[in-house]
Amino acid sequence: MNCEQLSETVVAFLDGETPPAEAAQIQAHLTGCAHCAEEIRALERIRAWTGRALSAPVSLPGSTAAAFDDLWRRLETRASDSSAPVALPSVAREPSVARGQKDTSRPPARRRSLGAARWRLRTAVIAATGMAAAAGLALTLYSREPNRASTISPGGGAAGTRLAQSEAHRARPAVVANESRHGRAGRGGTELADAQPALSEHDLPVPDELRQSPGLFVDYPIVRHLDALRHLEAVMDEPGDGQKSS
Amino acid sequence: MLRVRQGDREAFRILYEKYTGQITRFAANFVGLRSRGEELAQEVFLQVYRARDRYEPRAKFSTWLYTIAHNLCLNEVRRFDYRGKVESLDRDEEDPDRPPRPDLADPTALDGEALVAGKEVEQRIHELVAELPESQRTALILSRTENLRYQEIAEILSCSEQAVKSLIFRATQHLKEGLKGYVEDPG
After folding, report:
1. Cβ of B176 and A46 within 8 Å?
2. What residues make up the domain containing B56?
3. Same domain for B112 and B33?
4. Which chain B positions have a beta carbon within 8 Å of A71's beta carbon?
5. How many other CB atoms are there within 10 angstroms of residue A42's CB atom?
6. Which end of chain A, N or C, is surrounded by fewer C-beta atoms within 10 Å?
């Protein structure tokens, strides 16, 4: 063992963390090397000073029993007051909760705040998709008016006629929803009118499960689209509606 | 700890009394402020009780405890800047007239000059420890104050024994560099 090798392992040697064979090599080197012997004496002093400086006893405020009583009160208070803010440490190597298993380790307040955050996020997503669908439908219906449709499309007159002719096949929600999902609803009524013959109710049937239990599907954006579209169409069909009266 | 898992207050009290001094000292050394160390120790035991269901009996309790303490201290120093706020743990703010501890270098030296030198060294060590990277700091504190083996420190830090050896070596080199003026061989 040379001086460089020794300097890298000498701290572990002083801590008693070197294997016996290596420790014997270090000892042998130290007997014949004044420089390393001096080095190890300096490190021994530093080691002792550090131990003493860091090991100074820390007196607790008041008695330990009183401190524990205070701690227990805090535990009881937090347990009974689930709305109290709880700081969670990042405890290393804590077992993670398996997928599908409820995380009962989190305090109730924390679980509730996560649930609220999820609910807000879901609401925002549904609102955003609903607004997108409504905007698409509004554009579609706007372009349905013959005089306006002509301003949208160069061949607007013909398109307007086709739209009028297909009034009997009013845009079925599923079709419009499908269009809006693919970002095509905003392009005007012409494309919608062209698409209608190919997308009949037979092509896009509403599943029986959805008819029977719509409540099960409320979280799917398509159902929101359908609701929004049905509502808007109902509004448009009301007597006194501008489109109807004209 | 198994009794604590059942919610046994008395068992928890025994654990608290046994370990609170060590944890307070560790936290105070880590953040460099005794007053905050005491508060952090209370937080550690709050977490211990709340996480008692997650303690696995095959793990040594002190290892688990120091792991929680280490993580809380990490959170603490990352949230607040403790640089320049280091204080000697031996300093008694409530009683400034209390006689200081004997010289670190030579416990038998009791003359005033040696005492002042000892206090200086101690303060310097606290400053140097505060400058260490977090893992080096934890490894050094646990090794020097609690005499933990490298293997146990490795479990607390989730690293290898070889990594702990390196952390303590580098921390010691830093101290050696910072204590150059004090460390000359008197002989």
Report:
1. yes
2. 1-87
3. no
4. 16, 42, 45-46
5. 15
6. C
| Residue B63 pLDDT > 80 | yes
In this structure, the answer to whether residues B79 and B112 fall within a common structural domain is no
Total domain count for chain B?
Answer: 2
Chain A's closest residue to B63, CA to CA, is A92
Chain A closest-CA separation from residue B47 CA (Å):
8
**Cα distances (angstroms) measured from residue A239 to each of A235, A242, B113:** 9, 9, 103
Residue keyed to tokens 């560790």: B26
Kindly list the residues from chain A whose CB atom is less than 8 angstroms away from the CB atom of residue B43: 87, 89
More confident residue, A228 or A101: A228
| Contact residues, chain B, for A12 at CB < 8 Å | 150, 165, 168-169
Q: pTM of this prediction?
A: 0.56
For residue A7, what is the DSSP state?
H
pLDDT of residue B6: 76
CA separation (Å) from B17 to B32, B35, B41? 23, 18, 12
Q: What is the pLDDT of residues A137-185, one digit of tens each?
A: 777 766 665 554 444 444 444 444 444 444 444 444 444 444 444 444 4
Cβ partners under 8 Å of residue A48, min gap 6:
B104
Residue B19 lies in a domain: yes
**What was the pLDDT predicted at A226?**
63
CATH, residue B24 = 1.10.1740.10
> CA of A104: which chain B residue's CA is closest?
B53
The verdict on a CB contact (< 8 Å) between A91 and B141 is no
Q: Which helix or strand (DSSP H or E) is residue B139 part of?
A: helix B134-145
ipTM confidence = 0.81
Residue A207 confidence class, pLDDT cut points 50, 70, 90: low
Interface touch B125/A49, C-beta < 8 Å: yes
CB of A101 within 8 Å of any CB in chain B?
no
